Every structure is written in C-alpha cells, then in structure tokens.
Amino acid sequence: MEVEDFVTPRSASENPQRSTSLTSLRTANGGSLRNSFLYAKLREEPIKLSVRKLDGSFFDVEILKMATIADLKLAVEHVFSQMPDQGLGEISWPHVWGHFCLCYDAQKLVSDTDLVVKYGIRDGHQLHFVRHVSSIYNLTKTRSKRSVARKRPYLLKSTSSLKSTLKSEKNVEEINALGR
User: Fold this and answer.
1) Which residues, 6+ apart, have CB-to-CB distance to 41 below 8 Å?
2) Which range is most confident: 4-18, 86-100, 148-162?
3) Edge-to-edge, what's the strand order for the sheet holding 107-109?
4) What is the pTM for the complete model shown?
5) Which residues partner with 107 through β-bridges?
6) Are 22 and 12 in contact, with CB atoms under 8 Å apart?
7) Is 49 exposed, middle or buried (0-12, 13-18, 19+ CB in 10 A)?
8) pLDDT in tens, 45-86
9) What's the mean pLDDT when you consider all of the chain?
C-alpha cells in the first residue's frame, strides 16, 4: 500500500474547508476541544490467507478483513487467472463453485453474503477446498433439463385424436374442392 492510502489526522487550521463544520461541532459540544482533529477512515489492511487445493498444493490470496465469502471467491478466481497456463484450459467457475466450496475449521463457506470474520478467519489462516454440491447449481441444472424437455417436439397425439384431426382435414379439403 502507498503512504497516500492512509490519511493522517489534521487540525482545523490545516484544512480551512472543514473549519466551519468544526466550529459548529465545538459549539454543539459546548466548546470542547475533543473534536479539534478530523480523522478520515483509514483503509483496511488486507489479510493474507493460504488456500490448499485438492491436489495438496497451496496458493495465497489477499482480501480485506471485512470481505464477504463472494469477495473471497473472486480473489481465488483472480489468483487462478494470474497463474501461468498449466494446461488447465478455461476454468468454469460456476461449475467449480457448484461442486466445491472453501472450508475453514470444518465450516463450509457457502453463504456469499457472510463476512469472513464471522467464521473467525484472520490473517495467516489456512482454507481448503472440499467437495460440496451447491443447491443453486442443482437448481440451475434442473431448470436447464426442464427447458431442454420443453424445446423437444411434442409426441404425436393419441391415435383417436389423430384420426379425428385427419377427418377434419379431409372435410376441409372436400369443402375447398366444392368451392372451386
């Protein structure tokens, strides 16, 4: 990280644009000097995690401490996209996340909206892949089978309805012949 990424506290005299708001804060606070410094929110330091693949090899990822599981997955995808091509070809991430998930301390990290800190994950911890069939992946797979079934041509009607259809077509032909 660059030094510019961090903002140091400044007094009101160093930042004339904000001096008016400081004055009003002091007045509202009974004139206390407690609010004499402005603090900008410091950027979070990234945490470094080690991930063990199914083949036993490791790779490292960096995420923010307050990252979600979805952010962690994106970081994993990014690491793989930066690796030199080792004959793996194109990785289908929906397929990967549909069959595998990351795991920490026997907890499957499957809820994309959960924060990683919810699971107690901190800098230097190790995660690993485990087999897991996602219900979302199964739902998508089921839907695609249904849509394929819908796209197939319908089977012929029963023989009795087929005969009645043919009779009505014959009647139409006879009526058309009379009209000529």
Assistant:
1) 7
2) 86-100
3) 58-64, 46-52, 126-131, 100-104, 107-109
4) 0.53
5) 104
6) yes
7) buried
8) 899 999 999 999 999 999 999 999 999 999 999 998 888 766
9) 70
**In a 3-state reduction of DSSP, which class is residue 24?**
helix
Task: Report residue 100's pLDDT band, with 50, 70 and 90 as the boundaries.
Answer: very high
* Cβ-Cβ contacts under 8 Å for 51 (sequence gap 6 or more): 58, 59, 60, 61, 76, 102, 126, 127, 128, 129
Q: Class of the 46-138 domain?
A: alpha beta
Going from N- to C-terminal start, the domains of the chain cover 3-38, 46-138
What the block records as the tokens of 127 is: 């995660």
- Token pair for 94: 């929906």
What pLDDT does 20 receive? 40
- Return the SS3 of 154: coil
